[in-house]
Amino acid sequence: MRSETKVTAKVLDAAPRLAVVGRAGVGVDNIDVPAATARGVYVVNAPLGNIVAAAEHAITLALAVMRRVVDADRSIRAGEWTRSKFIGNELRGKTLGLVGIGRVGTEVARRAAVFGMTIVAHDPFATEASARAAGARLVELDELLRTADVVSVHVPLTEKTRGLMGEASLAKMKKSAIVVNTSRGEVVDLPALADALAGGRLSGAGLDVFPQEPLPADSPVRGAPRTVLTPHIAGSTVEAQTNVAVDVVEQILDVLDGKPARFAVNAPRPPAEEAGGPAWIRCGERLGSLVAQLLDERPARLDITYAGSLLELDAEPLRAAVVKGLLETFSEQRVNLVNALAVARSRGLDISERREADAQRYNGRRNARAG
After folding, report:
1. One of 128, 140, 167, 213 is an active-site residue; which one?
2. Who contacts 300 (Cβ-Cβ below 8 Å, separation ≥6)?
3. Is 122 a catalytic residue?
4. What is the pLDDT along the chain (371 residues), one digit of tens a residue?
5. Please, where in the chain does CATH 3.40.50.720 lie?
6. How distant is the alpha carbon of residue 18 from its chain centre?
7. 57 is catalytic
8. Is 213 among the catalytic positions?
9. What is the third-level CATH fold of 270-371?
10. Catalytic residue among 23, 39, 111, 184
């Protein structure tokens, strides 16, 4: 499915046998993920397939706005030849401010560096090391807005990011600066943006996403000066379409085959295959099932011990696997890696974990006890 299709709790209720929802793209705000999780439905996406396409489009919009490409094209098609009207600006020597430096933001940073731009970024989830690796310096949002010549937005839609680029944020930007948004339409306040552009308080904007799509005829940005608008096509390249389709289909087949999905949004990410991840997941499920068969009643407590090589792996999927195997015996609802921990919480199952360096005669060891 793409971004315009909505998967609500009502839709999920109408499909009791549904096992997995595949999003051919990155954002999943059109899917009720908590409702899917409660029902044990995997939500998988394809976060890698269209990263390059989205990054290239962000740079394309910045160039189109800075060099006034669209206005110049319209002018020449109207029979004009007025070169002096379309004197633009170079990216070289300018500062790019990335609001969000995840996968797409990182690729934008790498491409911007080739143009000779200085790159700053604001992302509460990024580390100094990851930002440096992308060629960026982490700063507070206020500093980014004050210093950037191009502000490019690359954040998911949350309550904190909704309207993030509103009147207050836009007022902190340089009059010569531009805004580029290829992430989520609701992050930018369009009336505030149109007002800033019309009042000369901002130089331009390149937008690929909008709060309402298709863009309404009366949208304030339709008539705003120095804007380049595209109909949500940042990820629409032949290569990206192929990549995301293959990624999603492979994961759907994995889920239906009882294997963990690589990019499950609502399930613990399995350990890498080279670390024995799939085998440890299967082993955990069987361990939990074995423990359940030795019990006479539903357990109130589960104790798990990890030792040896397991200490190097993420404990969450290992824990979820044991809980899944245990609860499947006592639950009438579907229990899998997606909702195992949530079902455990709802049943009042107290889970404790212990880590030991000595795996005794084994390379890795996991014990479970319930009661």
Report:
1. 213
2. 348, 349, 350, 371
3. no
4. 887 899 999 999 999 999 999 998 877 889 999 999 889 899 999 988 999 999 999 999 999 999 999 999 999 999 999 999 999 999 999 999 999 999 899 999 999 999 999 999 999 989 999 999 999 999 999 999 999 999 999 998 889 999 999 999 999 999 999 999 999 999 999 999 999 999 999 999 999 999 999 999 999 999 999 999 999 999 999 999 999 999 999 999 999 998 878 888 888 776 766 556 778 888 999 999 999 999 988 899 999 998 988 888 888 888 989 999 999 877 777 888 888 888 888 888 999 999 988 888 888 888 899 98
5. 1-50+237-267, 51-229
6. 23
7. no
8. yes
9. 60s Ribosomal Protein L30; Chain: A; (3.30.1330)
10. 184
CA 302 to chain centre: 33
DSSP H or E segment with residue 353: strand 350-356
Distance CA 15, CA 181 (A): 35
* CA distance linking residue 212 with residue 142, whole number of Å: 28
Q: Is 169 exposed, middle or buried (0-12, 13-18, 19+ CB in 10 A)?
A: buried
- Which amino acid is it at 135? G
In the chain, which segments carry CATH 3.30.1330.90? 270-371
Q: Given 3.30.70.670, 3.30.40.10, 3.40.50.720, 1.20.1540.10, which CATH number is that of 1-50+237-267?
A: 3.40.50.720
Tell whether domain 51-229 is in CATH 3.40.50.720: yes
One-letter identity of residue 127: T
- Report the C-alpha gap between 307 and 354 in whole angstroms: 9
Catalytic residue (one of 68, 111, 154, 232): 232
Positions of E strands within 50-176: 95-99, 118-122, 137-138, 150-153
Q: In the block, which residue shows the tokens 């909704």? A: 162
pTM score, two decimals? 0.74
User: Taking the CB of residue 22, how many other CB atoms lie within 10 A of it?
Assistant: 22
184's tokens: 């989520």
